[in-house]
Design brief:
alpha+beta, 2 domains, two-stranded antiparallel sheet, 7 helices, 6 strands
């Protein structure tokens, strides 16, 4: 059996903890059934539930320690947004990377819909508040902005001592403004600050709650 995709894992992990009932688009739920990770109840309303294999995937996720979101993904098969702090760029590039980013962003919007109490897709969800660096980096990469690479300029996303806040640096003033606009569109509160002793300006961003 093929391992579930990152989007499928998010749906599995968001299943009802008591019943294993799943929420998602018809295509996503059908894909889980094909992967033998879910089944459709034969009686109306024909809801979808985790199969025994799906329960095992969720149980493994609960037991698995959460990796540092600022670092590389612990599982090379799981998508990780690029923060611009990587020592080297690995994985797909070009059109293939763009497809991965679009899929991850759509998956995150669906996770917002499923886990925000009001179903809002324009406001960050609990997962984003516990994975601040990866969530902010995904919002920037999904907006088409380039992360920094060895020898190339671009944005960098790093954690901060402040609760629920990340720092975003971009050497170009226009690039910094573009990062602020992208994060605001993604539901983040953003403020621009100057570094100590007249240092370069940077952003502090936090997931919006309302």
């Amino acid at each position: 059996m093929k391992p579930p995709t990152a989007a499928q894992r998010r749906i599995i992990e968001a299943a009802d903890p008591e019943t294993g009932r799943l929420s998602g688009t018809p295509a996503q739920l059908t894909g889980l059934v094909r992967a033998r990770l879910a089944f459709r109840h034969p009686r109306p309303p024909h809801a979808y539930f985790l199969s025994p294999a799906g329960h095992r995937v969720r149980d493994e996720a609960v037991r698995r320690p959460v990796p540092d979101p600022a670092g590389p993904s612990a599982d090379p098969g799981v998508f990780a947004a690029r923060t611009g702090t990587e020592a080297a760029v690995a994985g797909s590039e070009g059109a293939a990377r763009a497809r991965e980013v679009r899929g991850a962003w759509e998956g995150l919007l669906e996770l917002r819909r499923m886990t925000n109490a009001d179903g809002a897709r324009d406001r960050p969800c609990a997962w984003e508040r516990t994975h601040l660096v990866q969530a902010a980096a995904l919002a920037l990469e999904a907006a088409g902005l380039p992360p920094a690479r060895p020898g190339q300029e671009g944005y960098e996303v790093r954690g901060t001592p402040q609760p629920e806040a990340v720092a975003v640096r971009e050497p170009s003033p226009d690039g910094l403004r573009a990062c602020a606009a992208a994060l605001e569109r993604a539901g983040w509160q953003v403020g621009e600050h100057a570094g100590p002793r007249g240092g370069s300006r940077y952003l502090l961003a936090s997931p919006r709650r309302t």
